[in-house]
Amino acid sequence: MSVSFYIKNKKKFFGYEKVMTIREVIDLFKEYKLSIYNIDFDADGFNKEKFYNTSIERWQENHSCILFGVEGKSGRGFEFSYNTTKNSYVIREFTPATENDWLIALEFMKVLTEKLGTKIKSEQGEIYTSEAISTFDYKNDIKSGIKAISDILNKENEKGFNVDNIYGIKRVVSFNKEIIEKIVNSSDEIKEFSKFCEDIQYIDAYSAKQSFVEDTITKEKWGYYVLTENLRTVLPYKPNVELISMDYIKNEEVAFWKIFFCAYKVDENGEEGIDKIGESIYDEFIKKLPTDKYKFIDASYIVVEPLNRDDILEILK
């Protein structure tokens, strides 16, 4: 669920102003330092300078949008794109988003519409000036989103698995009935929801990424995670295919899950590499993981405290 707002590009005598580059958009918003959360800046061959000097419209030829947020404040961020049919910039906020997400998005819309000299149009057709956008009832949108999660969790699926996930700027946030009831029954559900989502994004730990393998002979598919020695890591308690992977694999296609234990190494030439310590079926790893070495951060994910080699070898026995 989400709410979208459209800000018309500035008209010229013929057509419209040139669509802003990514750098121009970031430089425009001086109230906060915008960060981008859906681009891998460390990917091989990625040209940062070319990226920042690319117009939003041109970038979308191969990508859907840019996910903006403010480090240390945002929980889910907001999506930014350009609609060539409507000649409008589009700000899309998630439902539910955190209160900080909304305050940042509304301020961003104010700044952008002041630069363009146009107005803001919501997807419901409401028109706002740069000043009036601050009156948008974002709290009602957050509450409706929290209620939607609650409604989902009150209707267990046929397997009885009662968890609902949303995506943050850095990590998935997983809710169960107990967590959402605590939020709804608090003195301020918006504040409680926002803090819960934001705290998860800024945990000082590495979020392990899921990967998948297909056996070339049997065609059996399996998933795995990597846990590195002495590295505090966020992992799922029980792995499932995450939304970002569902375009090419489904839960029912995964025969089993593994976890690989590794350690960083540096050879005599100073070259960095990885040594494999061992591997385990994921469920067996969770069963053997000492309870004082991990804690739940939400309904589905745990943060595992740094494990040294002796800890890992004990688990692998």
Written description of the protein model:
The protein has helices at 22-28, 48-52, 56-59, 99-116, 138-153, 177-184, 189-201, 282-288, 309-316, and strands at 2-8, 35-36, 66-69, 78-83, 88-94, 120-122, 127-128, 164-167, 172-175, 206-207, 211-214, 221-228, 233-236, 254-266, 272-281, 294-296, 301-304. With 317 residues, it is an alpha+beta fold. Strand 3 and strand 4 (78-83) form a beta hairpin. Helix 5 runs antiparallel to helix 6. The protein is globular, with a radius of gyration of 23 Å. The model has no long low-confidence stretch (mean pLDDT 90).
Kindly report the average pLDDT value: 90
Stretches where pLDDT is under 50 for at least 5 consecutive residues are: none
Strand order of the largest sheet: 2-3-4-5-1-6-7
Number of helices: 9
Sheet bearing the most strands, described?
A: 7 strands, antiparallel
In what range is the share of β-strand residues? 25-35%
Ends: how far apart? 46 Å
The ordered H/E elements are EHEHHEEEHEEHEEHHEEEEEEHEEH
Question: What portion of residues is helical?
Answer: 25-40%
Radius of gyration, in Å, reads: 23 Å
**Which structural class best describes the helix and strand composition?**
alpha+beta
| Count of individual beta strands | 17
Shape: globular
